[in-house]
C-alpha cells in the first residue's frame, strides 16, 4: 500500500509510531496528484512548494517531541471558498480571479494549528451556486459529474489526491459529491464550525465540514475544527469535545427513524435497495427501527430556494451590477432571478423554516436519528440536464440532487453521508444519517459501527 492510499486515521497512527514521515506522505500524495489531476481536475491550485516545506517542518517538530495530535503532518485540500493566507480564493469565478487572501479563515487557522499540511485549493461550482462542479470529473467515471459544489474536495479524497479535505454545504454541497464519489461527508449542526473567512452563498444556510475516507477520519477533523468564534454571528458556544466514536459496534437501545415518505420517493431502485440493506445492517447491530413521517415535505423546495436565492443575490449585489459578464450564465441567471423576489417571499420562507425546525424537533423526540438516501440518483453523465423517473415524471439534475439534502440545511440539523455500495455501473451510493442539533457524536457512532461491518473501501479508479 502506498502512503497516499492511507486513511487519515491510518496515516496518523503511522506518523505517531514513526513508521511514516510527513514528508513521505506529502510526497506520495503530490505524486498521486501529478498522475491523476490531468484526468480529474480536482484542484484549482496546488501549492507543492508550500506543501513540502510544511511537511518538513512537521517532521522536524514531531522528531523534537512537539507532536500536536492526529492531524499533524496530514495533507489536506481546502475548497476554493475558504481563505488561506497568501493563496488565491477565486470561488471558481472570474469575478474573484485576482483575489488573494491576506489572512486565514478560522477553520484554516485551526487546521494549521493542528499541524495539517495544505496541498492546495479544490474546485467549486462558481460561488458554490450549483450541484455539479463542471470543472471536475467523477473519481469513478470521468464521463460522469463530480457533484457539487464541493466536487473538487470529494474527488481529491476519493482518488487519493488528499488525505482529507474541507467543503461547504448550503443545500447538500458536502454530502452530494461525497455520495457520488464514495467518500464520507459531514454537514455539522448549523453554527458548530465557524465560517469567518469563508465566501458565503447563503448566510442562513451555509455550513463548513470535512470530507474524508472514513467516519473516524471525519470525527478527527471535526474535533480539531469545532469551537466558538465571535467573528461569525451564527457561531455556537457548544463545549469542545472529542468526537471520535467508540470501537464497539453495538447499537442496542438506539432508535433509528426510517422515513415512510419523501426520502424514498422518486429514487433509483438500486439506491433504495442499498440504503434499506444498510439500515437492516444497523438493525442487526442492535438498533430499533421506527417508521417516521417527514413533516412539511411539500414546502422543502420552496423554502430552500426562498432563503438561498435572495441571500445569494444580496451578497453579490455590487458585482452583479458592475461586472455581470464575469459570471457564468447559470449562476448569473440565478442571481438575477433573486432580484425579482419580494421581501414577502423571503419572510414567508423564513416562517416556513421556523415551522419546519419545530416539526423536525418533535419528530426527533421519538427517534435518535434518521437514516435515508443522500441523493436519489448516482452520478449522471456530463451534460445530462434531467432525470426521468419510473412514473414518467422529469426532474432537473440539480433539483434531484438537492432534494434529499436540503432539509438538513433548512433545519440546521447535522447530517453525515457515508458510502453503502455501488450500482451496477460501479457508481457509489450514499446513505445519510440525520440527527438532533449538536448530536454529531451519535451520527459518527452509528456511521462508524456500520463501517466496521463492511470490507475496507478501495480508492476510486476513474475510467
TrEMBL record:
PROSITE patterns: AMIDASES. Gene3D superfamilies: Amidase signature (AS) domain (3.90.1300.10). It comes from Streptomyces spiralis. PANTHER family: AMIDASE AMID-RELATED, TRANSAMIDASE. This is Amidase. Residues 25-444 form the Amidase domain. GO terms for molecular function: catalytic activity.
Amino acid at each position: 500500500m502506498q502512503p497516499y492510499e492511507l486513511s487519515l486515521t491510518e496515516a496518523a497512527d503511522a506518523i505517531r509510531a514513526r513508521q511514516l514521515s510527513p514528508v513521505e506522505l506529502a510526497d506520495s500524495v503530490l505524486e498521486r496528484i501529478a498522475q491523476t489531476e490531468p484526468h480529474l481536475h480536482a484542484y484549482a491550485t496546488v501549492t507543492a512548494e508550500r506543501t513540502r516545506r510544511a511537511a518538513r517542518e512537521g517532521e522536524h517538530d514531531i522528531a523534537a517531541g512537539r507532536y500536536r495530535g492526529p492531524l499533524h503532518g496530514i495533507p489536506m485540500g481546502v475548497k476554493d471558498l475558504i481563505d488561506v493566507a497568501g493563496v488565491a480564493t477565486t470561488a471558481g469565478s472570474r469575478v474573484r480571479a485576482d483575489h488573494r487572501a491576506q489572512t486565514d479563515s478560522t477553520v484554516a487557522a485551526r487546521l494549521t494549528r493542528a499541524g495539517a499540511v495544505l496541498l492546495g485549493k479544490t474546485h467549486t461550482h462558481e460561488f458554490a451556486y450549483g450541484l455539479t462542479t463542471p470543472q471536475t470529473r467523477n473519481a469513478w467515471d470521468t464521463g460522469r459529474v463530480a457533484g457539487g459544489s464541493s466536487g473538487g474536495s470529494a474527488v481529491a479524497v476519493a482518488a487519493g489526491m488528499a488525505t482529507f479535505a474541507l467543503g461547504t454545504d448550503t443545500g447538500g454541497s458536502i454530502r452530494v459529491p461525497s455520495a457520488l464519489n464514495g467518500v464520507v461527508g459531514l454537514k455539522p449542526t448549523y453554527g458548530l464550525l465557524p465560517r469567518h473567512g469563508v465566501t458565503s452563498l447563503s448566510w442562513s444556510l451555509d455550513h463548513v465540514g470535512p470530507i474524508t475516507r472514513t467516519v473516524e477520519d471525519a470525527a478527527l477533523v471535526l474535533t480539531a475544527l469545532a469551537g466558538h468564534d465571535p467573528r461569525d454571528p451564527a457561531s455556537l458556544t457548544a463545549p469542545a469535545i472529542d468526537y471520535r466514536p467508540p470501537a464497539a459496534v453495538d447499537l442496542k437501545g438506539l432508535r433509528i427513524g426510517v422515513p415512510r415518505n419523501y426520502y424514498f420517493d422518486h429514487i433509483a431502485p438500486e439506491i433504495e435497495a442499498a440504503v434499506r440493506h444498510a439500515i437492516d445492517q444497523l438493525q442487526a447491530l442492535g438498533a430499533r427501527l421506527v417508521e417516521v413521517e417527514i413533516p412539511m415535505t411539500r414546502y422543502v423546495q420552496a423554502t430552500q430556494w426562498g432563503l438561498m436565492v435572495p441571500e445569494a443575490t444580496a451578497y453579490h449585489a455590487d458585482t452583479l451590477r458592475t461586472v455581470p459578464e464575469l459570471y457564468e450564465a447559470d449562476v448569473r441567471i440565478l442571481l438575477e432571478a433573486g432580484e425579482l423576489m419580494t421581501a414577502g417571499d423571503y419572510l414567508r420562507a423564513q416562517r416556513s423554516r421556523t415551522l419546519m425546525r419545530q416539526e423536525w424537533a418533535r419528530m426527533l423526540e421519538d427517534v435518535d436519528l434518521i437514516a435515508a438516501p443522500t441523493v436519489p440518483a448516482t452520478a449522471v453523465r456530463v451534460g445530462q440536464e434531467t432525470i426521468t423517473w419510473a412514473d414518467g415524471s422529469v426532474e432537473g439534475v440539480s433539483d434531484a440532487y438537492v432534494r434529499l439534502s436540503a432539509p438538513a440545511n433548512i433545519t440546521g440539523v447535522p447530517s453525515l453521508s457515508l458510502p453503502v455500495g455501488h450500482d451496477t455501473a460501479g457508481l457509489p451510493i450514499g446513505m445519510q444519517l440525520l440527527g438532533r442539533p449538536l448530536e454529531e457524536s451519535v451520527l459518527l457512532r452509528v456511521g462508524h459501527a456500520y463501517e466496521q461491518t463492511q470490507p475496507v473501501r478501495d480508492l476510486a479508479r476513474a475510467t
